[in-house]
Description:
Layout: H1 5-20, H2 25-36, E1 41-42, H3 43-50, H4 54-66, E2 71-74, E3 81-84, H5 89-117, H6 123-150, H7 154-163, H8 165-179
Antiparallel strand pairs: 1-3, 2-3
Helix pairs in contact: 1-2, 2-4, 3-4, 5-6
Amino acid sequence: MTVTPMQQSLISHFGEMGSRWGLNRTLGQMYALIVLTEQPLNADQISDALLISRSNVSMGIKELKSWNLIKLQHIPGDRKEYFSAPKDIWEIARTLIIERRKRELDPTLSTFRDALLQDPANEADKYTQQRVQDMHDLMEMVTIWSTELQNMSSDKLSTLLKLGSGVGKILDAKERFLSK
Length: 180
């Protein structure tokens, strides 16, 4: 498999961004290659294209599967496993929201709930609980909102994002109307 200069540039960038997104560089590169390639790829093709070891590819595939970011495919007459990314970019975004929420928000919300169930021993603990309550409430709203987003169709998500600053203008108008 030949990687074009454009693809190589994007693969390198995804590798660098991977570490900022909580993934390692190789995983970011692997996912970029899979997303940017029209045909499903097998592990050998990924290894050859990215010049990484087959064992690194195997570990990366397991990680990408655990994130539900790639799909296993079989090609008739070929015993190898092939992998592809969803064609719908919105599906990828929804999957990332779900997986990041499971890995980051849910455990934090659980810790916050535990802290809020404790009896405060002193004023410092009361203050701490109030701050935790505020953070919990915000994270709970984000969780509810992300659930709403993941259940929206791709068309509705696109429309929602295209509204952009228009939503802020609507809310400003609502405030002006209610304050009269």
